[in-house]
Amino acid sequence: MQDHNSSFPRPLALLILATLACAFAGNHVAARVAFDDGAGLLVAILCRSGITALVLLGLVMLGSDPLRQTATTWRWQIVAGLCVAVQSYCIYSAVARIPVGVALLVVNLSPVFLALITWLLGGPAPTRRALGLMALIILGLLVVLDVPRIILQAQAVNRDWYEGVVFCLVAAVAFACALWITHNRLAGMPGKVRSCLTMLVVFVAAAALGGAGAIPGGLEIPRSLAGWSALCVLVMLYGAAFSALFILMPRLDITRNAPAMNVEPVAALLLGWLVLGQQVGYLQIVGASMVLGGILLLAQTRGHQGPVHGSLRQKNGKRC
């Protein structure tokens, strides 16, 4: 059990988590800048996962936790890592196509998918309150995606919009699967070992796809200094935020304070407007508030405290 006497005061813990969430949002905005300058998706994933894996490997080597695992654990670890690799590729594919804040709002549906997956695989059924909150989240998401206006005005939507939304949904489902595996099959592993091995699987998967030429243009490098700078910012923000989250986690009382991390899509909307000129309408802001409010309330629902809070506690795993 966590020693609350060693935890940061709650206002400080919330401030730290909100700051880290902003850094993660900045990582995705920087990724969009790099992609617009010609950088390939696999280059971003390789840089991000490679540097972070090295940091985590150093932490593991400094500690006493063994990297050796049983064959069964390795199989589940590889599957979890591949799920995170899919999530990483899909979320970067999404932010390359649609506004960053909108993409992160859709990806933040992972706790909803986790609750449903847990139920389908024999876990507790969602309560009536949880189902109502899920309906609120979906309604808010429809507003964010501007679906009512598209239907009422019979407005054509470009292909990038549809593809971006699909990539977001796949990313959310893939991460929910990774969380289910982590919560139900890898819970006994030390956190830093699990995160390190996940990062290594992501790196190897991206390298294999690049080597096989499976994703055309995936290994393209930026064309200008602006793209290289964005790529460096991406790696630094992600690596620093991930490492800080992992190192400080024992003192952050994640179980109570993790909802502060949901400021990420809000920060992404603001940074997307300031850096990329991406704008959203007033109705979309209302929809975003519905989505975030529903997710925060769902995280506090007693009937789903286990899986939903488990997903929030694994924010470090999410950043793989």
From TrEMBL:
Major subcellular site: membrane
Keyword Membrane in annotation: yes
GO cellular component annotations of the record: membrane
Localization, UniProt: Membrane
Domain EamA: from-to ranges: 14-145, 164-298
InterPro entries found in the cross-reference section: AA-Vitamin_Transporters (IPR050638), EamA_dom (IPR000620), EmrE-like (IPR037185)
Listed transmembrane segments: 41-62, 74-95, 101-121, 133-152, 164-183, 195-219, 225-248, 260-276, 282-299
Keyword Nucleus in record: no
A Pfam family matched in the record: EamA
Keywords: Membrane, Transmembrane, Transmembrane helix
Membrane topology: Multi-pass membrane protein
Family designation: Belongs to the EamA transporter family.
Record's protein name: EamA domain-containing protein
Species per Swiss-Prot/TrEMBL record: Pseudomonas putida
